[in-house]
TrEMBL record:
InterPro entries: 5'-Nucleotdase_C (IPR008334), 5'-Nucleotdase_C_sf (IPR036907), 5_nucleotidase/apyrase (IPR006179), LPXTG_anchor (IPR019931), Metallo-depent_PP-like (IPR029052). It comes from Trueperella pecoris. Residues 862-895 form the Gram-positive cocci surface proteins LPxTG domain. Keywords: Cell wall, Membrane, Peptidoglycan-anchor, Secreted, Signal, Transmembrane, Transmembrane helix. GO terms for cellular component: outer membrane-bounded periplasmic space. The keyword NAD does not apply. The chain crosses the membrane at residues 869-889. Residues 1-23 form the signal peptide. This is Bifunctional metallophosphatase/5'-nucleotidase.
Amino acid sequence: MKRLAIGAVAAASLVLSPAAALAAPETDTTTEKAPVATEEASPAAEGEQVDADKKADTEGEKEADKDAAEMQEAGVVTLDLYNLTDIHGHIEKVTSKDKKTQVVTVKEAGLAAMSCYVKKAKEDNPNSQLVLLGDNIGASPFTSGSQDDNPTIKALNEMGVFASTIGNHEFDKGQDVLRARIAGTKVGDVTYEKVNFPYLGANLKGMEEIGAYEVWTSPSGVKVAFIGALEDDAPTKVFEGTFNGITFEKPVKVINDLAKKIKDNKEADVVIAMYDNDVKRSYPKMGEYVDGIMGGDTHVPYYFTKEKTEEGREISATASGKFTDNLANLQIKVDLKTRKVVDSQAIKITAEDVVKACPEGDPAVVKVVDEAKKISDEKGAEVIADGVGNFYRGKLPNDGENRGTESTIGGLIADAMRSTFTTLDGKPLDIGIINAGGIRNDLLPEGGKVTIKNVFDVQPFSNEVGYVSMTGAQFKTLLEQQWKELDAAKGSTRPMLKLGLSQNVKYTFDPAKEKGQRITSVLINDEPIVDDQTYTVGSVTFLLQGNDSFDVLKDVKDTLTTIPDGLDRDFFGKYLTENPKVQPRDAVQSVGVTLVDPKVDGMKVTTKVNLRGLSFSGPGESQTKTVTVKLGDQTATATVNNTLEDKNAADYSAIVTADGVGYLDQPVELSATATCGDSAKAHLPLTVTDDKGNVLVGEAAGLGVDVTCEGKTDPTDPVDPTPAVPTLDINRDKVAQGDSVTFTAKGLAPEEAALITVHSETVVVFAGKADAKGMIEAKWTVPSDFEVGEHLARLTTDNAKASVKFNVVGAKVPNKPADPLDPNKILADKIFKGLLEDLAAQKDDANKVTTGTTTGKPAPKLAHTGTEAMSLMAAALLFGAAGTTLIAVRRKGAK
């Protein structure tokens, strides 16, 4: 590390900061002017950045010294405001080795090196401070997570953190545990390490332990106010009820209003927003009293120097990235006379350069980390499976996490969610799902050996598991809700959260369609999903409660059943134990298909087909190199672009964070001719096969183009627009007393309500609905004392009538009297007396209505209660509810 040769502390506070020497700034660029692509962030992800691996040459150092001298003479102080975000308990150094070159790269510096770097920087420039942007703990690796994140808090306390924004992950174990961390007290059997720095959340109301802002007075006398704020979508990222009693105000308004108040009251000269949100979307909204902004949450590194806000002001902004992959410095220069900010810069210091500057690390933090590692190594060394392949989360160009693309680890966990537990009555689940945010690490078992630590690192949240019941239509809606609105008020700050799905689920989507209409097919076990069929879906209860803005799951939350005796990682570990040789999938389960401007000329169809989401994104994972697209009997082959940057991605940047990885640069053109059979329509199916022979889109998906055949009539279409006339037939025209006949009604509408009655004695033979073909078959046994002679059977609907005559002859076999306690008869007597009276009243001979008992007593005269207003549909439903298929209504004592 280069040290500044300034003797006096006072002088040191007025000159170029150590970050200038350590990070060697060379240019002042922005995204729009000259983006700099690095391993840590793509051009779309970064504004002005200064990489610590680009050391200034001698001339550059001389220029820096010259600038420092000029600043000193001008009375300008440099404030180096270092910040880290989304540490998530990553306290250890992480490296990777290139298999070909054997070059070792530092991916995460670890907190010991970070602490050493910042402490040395403070020595070089006492006008330096360190703050955090939240999510310091939670979803942590095994080393810290298995010890309740106490090691992380211990390490941060040693680092001398001034303040931290509160993140949603600080609430992972609930408010009681967070309060215990702040106080250093005990909950249950766990004693929590006391947090020695304040948590800030100005827009959170209802938890007094969380402050709004802190003011730091630098050695130069310049006062800096740090305002903390948390995005108001936080309740969608944690278990329901976690924020009970806490309300969220709009963070941007709170920050801007509070900044004005602080400056109006002369509490601080400089105001910095510590806003745990996507800083790329936040910095333009900062008002005139905010001098700089730090962000987080997205795990993407952002470095913007003097960008324009919506008001046209210049502002610099940083988001370090995630874990300890970078250290950010929001450098602010202040005129000591006017106490105004005269310059600012966003400086990125990579993990590689932090470790180069401090290879041994801060001894105090090294001790904390070493102790934690010793304990966790003993706990996590047990091997539970041997022979497991490598499974990755979705990747960004900088090797960061991508929650918008299909991943092999997501599919693996979803398979575990489907197959390792059943419903409480022992039935297998239909579908397994998992949210991308619930997967916190890749599964990369050394030598194929999976340990308890590996499983914990993948699923560290200690979620319960369970299942819900939902219809096929609701499951389609669930898939539609993977695409998010970039609006915290509507529950998401990411453009897509791709669900991991069990291997028996496939679907296609059209990214060109409007949000909410993109799912074009869903297959369960290679069969189209049925909209009104119920499916059982297993996952972690966090997701099944509708969190991560999967709102349709809230509609079925009443069906949520929690599985006892196990957490998510227990069932995941069980799956790996039962499948110790499991390997990543060879093909994706979801594919984007867009038919571009299909044209039909007679029987000939010409169209262009665009495809995306064809590959996985992890190192060495299956990638589709070419696809064969088939329309009807015509095929075309196209090359797949598997780069992770795509100008056509459904996102605000050039990084594929939605719609999946692997796409066609240009649509393929296909021309096919349809052949008509007996149908009025011909379907040209569209299929897609990859270069390994995997069918990515099969005919079962139902995609393709329909062609109308001239001169043909679709059997499902009515040939005659005139409605069919209902008919009523009887299987024989002569029947003996005590014998049975069958009445057949045809020509009704499907499920149309109808009555079949027999006269001159009024008997209800059938009351109900026709079947799906518009038919009714009703069997009727002629009572043994039924009047001999000619009778009329009548079919009545709300819209039509039909009848048939038949003759009753002498008794064949005496009929057994009906049980006077028959519940069907009793129910009919109570419900339908008015209806039957009306039916009888319609007869010309004004016969009286009597019930089908054998007492021989006349039925009592009933009051006319307006039953003529009762529709046949209502009557049919009532009869159906009673389970009645035959009710005899007879005139008593008429002979």
